[in-house]
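Try this one yourself first.
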């Protein structure tokens, strides 16, 4: 304290400089100021929430219905926020019921569970579907989509790269497919490795993210992440990238399967918003995710899948 005050005095007369005294007063006054701002937290009406995809390659999936909570609430929504008395249906554009669901508890407790399909149903490309959910005490919610068309893979090839690590499989993947000319399209693809018996032994991932677009730097593409066709030329999308996996020394790969997914616009926006907020951080809590659920939260997406096999 003293080493800050003593220099303010004159060495000869020990008189306080008025200018320095004024400055000191301002500093002390400002440092002593403390302002408390009270903000009213708006009232929150809980709404239903759901995330569900219609996938031609994996139909008849279960779904979970949850609820929202106020910003300052600390409820464990996984334990206490699941809704187990909802009515869940999927209908087509003509109002015909295509799939119903019934709640089935998990083994951990009767209040936790998921909704299982009551009948078999596979979405048809080009058709429109409506997901409707209602539950006591909540406003009904609804999501709509048009199932994407099929986009076949025109060609795909895998060129292995010699490795000193025998447990690693690494190589250059080349992929090409025709992009439908009408409107913007959205995609994602996965690479899976199988043995001679058709058993899944691994998945491949981008070895270095994006050197993947031939002569283009507009969109970052990597295995397993969504992308759009805004950069595509002449209706053709060509992709080339190094990919890798570690199937193990005792696993012999027979073929590589390319799974190309054609996505609905809302599913693309939902996935992009999720990626942008989490930024590959497993501890991040995503906020403000894109939603196409009317009167609620979440995503109702459509995925139309095509596959291409590459023998190794």
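Now uncover the answer:
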């Amino acid at each position: 304290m003293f080493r800050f005050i003593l220099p303010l005095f004159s060495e000869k007369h020990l008189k306080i400089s008025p200018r320095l005294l004024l400055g000191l007063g301002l500093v002390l006054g400002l440092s002593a100021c403390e302002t408390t701002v009270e903000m009213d937290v708006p009232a929150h009406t809980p709404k239903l929430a759901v995330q569900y995809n219609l996938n031609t390659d994996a139909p008849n999936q279960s779904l979970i219905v949850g609820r929202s909570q106020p910003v300052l609430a600390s409820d464990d929504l996984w334990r206490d926020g699941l809704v187990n008395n909802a009515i869940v249906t999927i209908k087509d554009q003509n109002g015909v019921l295509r799939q119903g669901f019934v709640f089935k508890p998990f083994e951990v407790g009767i209040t936790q569970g998921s909704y299982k399909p009551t009948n078999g149903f596979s979405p048809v490309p080009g058709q429109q579907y409506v997901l409707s959910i209602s539950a006591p005490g909540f406003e009904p919610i609804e999501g709509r989509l048009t199932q994407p068309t099929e986009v076949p893979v025109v060609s795909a090839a895998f060129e292995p790269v010699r490795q000193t690590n025998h447990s690693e499989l690494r190589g250059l993947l080349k992929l090409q497919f025709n992009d439908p000319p009408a409107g913007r399209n959205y995609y994602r693809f996965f690479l899976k490795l199988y043995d001679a018996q058709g058993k899944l032994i691994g998945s491949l991932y981008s070895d270095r993210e994006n050197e993947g677009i031939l002569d283009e730097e507009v969109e970052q593409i990597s295995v397993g992440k969504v992308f759009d066709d805004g950069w595509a030329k002449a209706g053709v999308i060509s992709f080339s990238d190094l990919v890798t996996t570690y199937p193990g020394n005792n696993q012999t790969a027979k073929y590589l399967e390319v799974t190309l997914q054609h996505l609905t616009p809302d599913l693309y926006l939902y996935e992009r918003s999720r990626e942008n907020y989490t930024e590959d951080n497993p501890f991040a809590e995503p906020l403000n995710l894109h939603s196409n659920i009317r009167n609620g939260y979440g995503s109702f997406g459509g995925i139309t899948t095509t596959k291409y096999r590459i023998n190794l």
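Discussion: The domain at 153-263 is CATH 2.60.40 (Immunoglobulin-like). The radius of gyration is 29 Å.
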